[in-house]
């Protein structure tokens, strides 16, 4: 029976050392020197190890604790430290697989520090060796009880009575044989046992606390990731809505550009028709002369009429008035010669009151989203580019009579005369087309050249030469 126990013990030793050899058989060149010292210390252990070997192992473990402070290494080093401390105090009570468990813990420590493993796999490996460690810890109290009971059985209960040889007939007396000395009884102080159990219990609570903390953090991280994914999903939905709005805006812009193009074409057609109508109205004067020429029957009469050509300059007894555009200003009608009008710009009454206070302004004040400054421009400014028109500074023209604060302005007329330009603020234009007056009275006072008759009443004909 004793031989069988010895054989089993040897088998366990061989398995333990095979695990240790397998653990440290191939050490990579980049392994931490402290891990190599741990390797050497464990390799030097056998069932006859000394206190010095255990002391070296404990020092190595303490050095590693100061370097590898993460949660997994903390657990592994704590388990190796507890086993080493237990072997230092009472190696006689160590279970047969103590070194085997120590070797597996050390192997796991090396794996998670020399290879790249995911967090989940590290946790699984630590959990496996922790299970072995708990099983080893649970064996220690049972072994202690077994040693005590075995010791009690080995101790002799009392002196053995020797029977006289003569009492047993037919049996020759034999000399007494030497018996092997009984093994000394091994006892562990109760205080030491309590300390060991307390240490293991504290270690178990520490590991359990670390496991709970890891699980809680994992749950919190999962919850945060889910919340973040929900926020990202909402953000992506908002981006899709914004993109949809941009598509609608682009569609509206294309339709708006098309509408604007059509409006521009219609305006150009209207301007052409307007200019053609003006040309037709200007032509009547030479038409009236033709019947006079046709009335001359003879060439002699035509020759006699040649001297009268010089007298044609004195023919009109009454004044001839130019084509004008008529505007209102307060209760008065203002007529401006068509040839002296370079352009007309609409303006808000509020802005007009602000601009009329200045001595000069830039034409860019009248640019709008719907209309360029060069549109319908006449005279020399017609050939200027839009940017040049924006920066063109012109004086603000004012009529001689005083306007009140209640005077309303909503039209700005750009006047021209001999290369000079100025802005005159008036109210609305009452005739959409130019008007040619047949009657009027010449005044010639300051800027008022005459009073001419219009369908709306008498209008003051303004002389731009005086204002500019």
Tags for this model:
468 residues; six-stranded mixed sheet; five-stranded mixed sheet; 12 helices; disordered N terminus
Q: What is shown here, in short?
A:
The chain is of the alpha+beta class and 468 residues long. It has helices at 2-24, 33-43, 51-67, 71-90, 98-114, 119-154, 190-282, 284-294, 299-304, 349-355, 386-390, 464-467; strands at 323-329, 332-337, 341-346, 360-362, 393-397, 411-417, 420-426, 435-436, 440-445, 448-454, 457-462. The protein has 12 helices and 11 strands.
Structure description:
By secondary structure, the protein is α+β, with helices and mostly antiparallel strands. Among the domains are: 179 residues, no CATH class; 147 residues, no CATH class. Helix content is 53%, strand content 13%. It has a 6-stranded mixed β-sheet with strand order 8-1-2-11-10-9, with no helix packed on it. The chain has a 5-stranded mixed β-sheet with strand order 3-6-7-5-4. Helix 1 packs parallel to helix 5, helix 3 runs antiparallel to helix 4 and helix 4 runs parallel beside helix 6. It is rod-shaped. It starts with a helix and ends with a helix.
């Amino acid at each position: 029976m004793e031989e069988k126990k010895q054989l089993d013990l040897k088998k366990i030793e061989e398995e333990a050392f095979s695990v240790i050899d397998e653990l440290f058989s191939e050490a990579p060149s980049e392994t931490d020197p402290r891990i190599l010292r741990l390797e050497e210390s464990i390799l030097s252990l056998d069932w006859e190890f000394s206190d010095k070997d255990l002391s070296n192992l404990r020092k190595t473990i303490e050095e590693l604790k100061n370097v590898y402070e993460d949660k997994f290494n903390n657990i592994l080093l704590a388990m190796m430290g507890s086993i080493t401390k237990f072997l230092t105090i009472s190696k006689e009570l160590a279970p047969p697989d103590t070194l085997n468990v120590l070797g597996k813990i050390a192997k796991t420590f090396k794996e998670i520090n020399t290879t790249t493993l995911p967090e989940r796999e590290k946790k699984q490996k630590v959990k496996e060796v922790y299970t072995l460690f708990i099983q080893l810890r649970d064996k220690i109290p049972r072994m202690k009880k077994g040693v005590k009971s075995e010791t009690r059985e080995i101790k002799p209960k009392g002196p053995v009575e020797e029977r006289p040889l003569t009492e047993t007939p037919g049996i020759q007396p034999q000399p007494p044989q030497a018996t092997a000395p009984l093994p000394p009884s091994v006892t562990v102080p109760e205080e030491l046992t309590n300390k060991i159990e307390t240490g293991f219990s504290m270690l178990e609570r520490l590991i359990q606390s670390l496991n709970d903390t890891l699980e809680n953090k994992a749950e919190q991280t999962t919850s945060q990731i889910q919340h973040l994914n929900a926020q990202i999903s909402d953000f992506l939905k908002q981006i899709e809505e914004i993109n949809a709005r941009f598509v609608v805006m682009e569609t509206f812009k294309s339709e708006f550009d098309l509408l604007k193009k059509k409006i521009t074409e219609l305006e150009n057609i209207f301007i052409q028709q307007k200019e053609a109508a003006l040309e037709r109205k200007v032509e009547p004067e030479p038409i009236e002369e033709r019947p006079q020429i046709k009335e001359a029957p003879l060439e002699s009469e035509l020759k006699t009429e040649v001297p009268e050509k010089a007298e044609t300059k004195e023919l009109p007894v009454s004044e001839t008035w130019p084509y004008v555009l008529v505007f209102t200003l307060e209760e008065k009608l203002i007529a401006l010669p068509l040839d002296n009008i370079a352009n007309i710009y609409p303006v808000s009454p509020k802005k007009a009151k602000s601009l009329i206070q200045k001595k000069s302004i830039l034409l860019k004040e009248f640019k709008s989203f719907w209309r360029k400054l060069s549109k319908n421009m006449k005279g020399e400014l017609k050939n200027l580019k839009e940017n040049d028109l924006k920066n063109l500074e012109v004086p603000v023209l004012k009529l001689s009579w005083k306007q009140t604060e209640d005077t309303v302005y909503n039209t700005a007329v750009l006047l021209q005369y001999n290369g000079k330009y100025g802005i005159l603020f008036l109210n609305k234009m009452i005739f959409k087309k130019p008007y040619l007056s047949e009657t009027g009275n010449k005044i010639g006072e300051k800027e008022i050249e005459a009073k001419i008759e219009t369908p709306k009443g008498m209008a003051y004909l303004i002389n731009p030469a005086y204002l500019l």
